Amino acid sequence: MEDGVTLAYCLRVAGKAQIPAALRAFQDIRYERVKAVQKTGETTRDMWHKADWDRVKEDPKSVQMPREDWIHGHDVEAHVSQVFRDSFNKFVPSLSV
């Protein structure tokens, strides 16, 4: 969902004439957050695959799916509206939207 909202915003604000720059801005905006979210998946995978199953029998919550508030509480629309201009202008500085 975050990708869809970010991409739609970038394309709408940049306009048809600047689709390549909008796509570069989209990638620039999303890269670090996507990388961080993927890292949480690796951590969860490791937790489950390396579980001490005797401990899990005693405490099933030890392998409970973590709920990361920084992931689930993120307001992607507010974020993209704050960072789009700077990101887009990296790729088309002469237009400056």
Short description:
With 97 residues, this protein is an all-alpha fold. The protein has one domain. The protein has helices at 2-14, 19-49, 53-58, 69-72, 76-91.
Explain what the structure shows.
- The protein is an all-alpha fold.
- Helices cover 72% and strands 0% of the residues.
- The protein has one domain.
- Helix 2 packs across helix 5.
- The relative contact order is 0.19.
The H-and-E topology, N to C, reads as HHHHH
Indicate the proportion of strand residues.
Answer: under 5%
Which outline best applies? Answer: elongated
What is the rounded Rg?
A: 19 Å
Largest sheet: none
Low-confidence stretches: none
Content-based structural category: mainly alpha
Mean pLDDT: 91
Roughly how much helix do the residues carry, as a percent range?
over 70%
Number of strands: 0
N- to C-terminal separation?
25 Å
* Assembly of the depicted chains: single chain
Give the count of helical stretches. Answer: 5
Q: How many structural domains in the coordinates?
A: 1
What keywords describe this structure?
97 residues; single chain; mainly alpha
